UniProtKB/TrEMBL annotation:
Gene that produces this protein: hisE
Family the entry assigns: Belongs to the PRA-PH family.
Catalytic activity reported: 1-(5-phospho-beta-D-ribosyl)-ATP + H2O = 1-(5-phospho-beta-D-ribosyl)-5'-AMP + diphosphate + H(+)
Official protein name in the record: Phosphoribosyl-ATP pyrophosphatase
Pathway: Amino-acid biosynthesis; L-histidine biosynthesis; L-histidine from 5-phospho-alpha-D-ribose 1-diphosphate: step 2/9
Amino acid sequence: MSKDLQARYVLERLFDTVVSRKDASPSLSHSARLMARGRNKIAQKFGEEAVECVIEAVNGDRDALISESADVLYHLVVMWVDAGVKPSDVWAELERREGTSGIEEKASRPKHTP
Ligand SMILES: N=c1c2ncn([C@@H]3O[C@H](COP(=O)(O)OP(=O)(O)OP(=O)(O)O)[C@@H](O)[C@H]3O)c2ncn1[C@@H]1O[C@H](COP(=O)(O)O)[C@@H](O)[C@H]1O
């Protein structure tokens, strides 16, 4: 497999690694430690990383944004594993949306009545 193709599957490989850490020792694996601390902690960490990502985007620091984006994706993958969501579930949802304009989709939503 080419390096480029291999890189495209990095999220799937990360997912498989985190799944394999479910029963690992929290003293040896950060993923195991995070999952042992429970869903609220996982969600909190994801939120913190997302905020750090936003800060770097606003600051215009490209390298920091790349690094924070990787942190966000790692913590998202841990959240998927904890919640029983597979990458293929998310890819399927993205594929379902493919070709539908966001403007069109928003306009088709039922109107809220006060
Ligand atoms: N991509 C990552 C990754 N990104 C960030 N991190 C870790 O996330 C932690 C974030 O640190 P923080 O201080 O923000 O969080 P914290 O240690 O939970 O501290 P608190 O805020 O809770 O006090 C650091 O320890 C980072 O090293 C990651 N840890 C693991 N991975 C991947 O997951 C794989 C499995 O890792 P382990 O589960 O550790 O074996 C690795 O091979 C990597 O591919």
